[in-house]
Known about the structure:
The structure is a homodimer.
Chain A: E1 7-11, H1 17-26, E2 32-36, H2 48-63, E3 69-72, H3 75-88, E4 93-94, H4 97-107, E5 112-117, H5 119-124, H6 126-134, E6 139-144, H7 148-153, H8 160-176, E7 180-184, H9 192-199, E8 204-207, H10 208-222, E9 235-239, H11 246-254, E10 261-263
Parallel strand pairs in A: 1-2, 1-3, 2-9, 3-4, 5-6, 5-7, 7-8, 9-10
Helix pairs in contact in A: 1-10, 2-3, 4-6, 4-10, 8-9
Amino acid sequence: MSDARPIGVFDSGIGGLTVVKALRELLPGENIFYLGDTARVPYGGKSASTVERYSVEMTDMLVAEDVKTVVIACNSASAVALPKLEQTLAVPVIGVIKPGAQAALAATRNRHVGVIGTRATIKSGAYERELRALNPDVRISVRACPLLVPLIEEGWLDDELTNRVIARYLEPLTHDGIDTLVLGCTHYPLLADAIAPFLAGKVQLVDSARNCAKAVEQLLDQQSLRASRKGEGILQVALTDAPDTFLGVARRALQLEIGELQLREVLHPAKL
Amino acid sequence: MSDARPIGVFDSGIGGLTVVKALRELLPGENIFYLGDTARVPYGGKSASTVERYSVEMTDMLVAEDVKTVVIACNSASAVALPKLEQTLAVPVIGVIKPGAQAALAATRNRHVGVIGTRATIKSGAYERELRALNPDVRISVRACPLLVPLIEEGWLDDELTNRVIARYLEPLTHDGIDTLVLGCTHYPLLADAIAPFLAGKVQLVDSARNCAKAVEQLLDQQSLRASRKGEGILQVALTDAPDTFLGVARRALQLEIGELQLREVLHPAKL
């Protein structure tokens, strides 16, 4: 039995391609349909109800592509929209928060975990809820880092100014004594090399992209949804607005083979 | 004759409140209805066709408020949507680009003008077109500064890190020999004090917010649209998404009296 339908992946923009990269490495035979809501990016500063509405619209568009599962490769959307999507979607849905929380708890020795993300993700408290549900004794320090995504999109990945911003954001967390840091935004793995020196080998990084890909692999196995392992899967990328320079940054940094880009209009539910 | 209908002002977000501030100072008797598209902010990284579509939707919402004129307090929207809005709106419309270009040409002595703005504004070439139409001999140096808006929204207005980013963006322009710099984004006046030291008294700053307010005053006088000068006008603020921390930053920095905030859903034209 094999299922050649694509895995549907969505993100507010292009940062979710880090999850696609992890999926390609772990599940090379799978077809992937990626949808980035670049017409309304970023979600990270927006309210929970708006992010939920956008997430429903995006996943509806993925379901129309006959995907076999939906991956929310966006922490902000996972943080606020996952419960709603789990209720309403006819296919299984996986976010990035739970896999990240599980990996953080597996990694921590002193049970003190740090989480960085966008304002929407941090404000939602989703990581705290997930971590505490798994282990009520865990200590958690969080920090919203709204400048990291713009710095990444500017392409300043290996840059002294970016390092200074990272230092300012991380200092209170390392001072608090965390021994594990969750990169709670799918853009942030692009800064993993820049973040590592500030942790001085004392803090482990948990990359939500990679852990999300592992959760997808488990799900496909459990539900017998794997594609045939012969040949390499196809990656299709659709965006709701024409891409800007950041797509080039992501392509170079991730070395992803992306074919022709598709543009899709957001389909709004009928308003009366 | 007086006309008490409000002046309609729109921006992609809250940065356009710098234009409102300038309007309040220059035209204290006018009622103002401000609409910020915070559900889709920022426009600055998005494509011209998307920014034009959003601008049409926002101005339609303002016209429904019975405004007597529309002010596009957003450089990105002015840069790409003004021609379309001039054709389609039943009330006069004013953007920020032309007033800024006129002020820059009045200020420059060596006829070498610099312009900074978002990616969308700079990519549009709108300032170059406007400046060259007014004076074909002007030299122009431009630079997209996509990190300035996030830095302002983070509230890092008087901050050494922000100063370093400004220095990096401005160095090529001052090195080129500009003697006048247009702040081609309505957020940027909030950084005027931070930008000034890098110009070392040799470069004049042109604030598009203040010049836009002057253009509105002229228009109201020409078309006999002024409100009665008795009493102070009311400022109403509506946003398409719940405000985040930046509204507090703007309120403090601009010292604007904003009453109760209204939330408005974006009205999309019917899709078939």
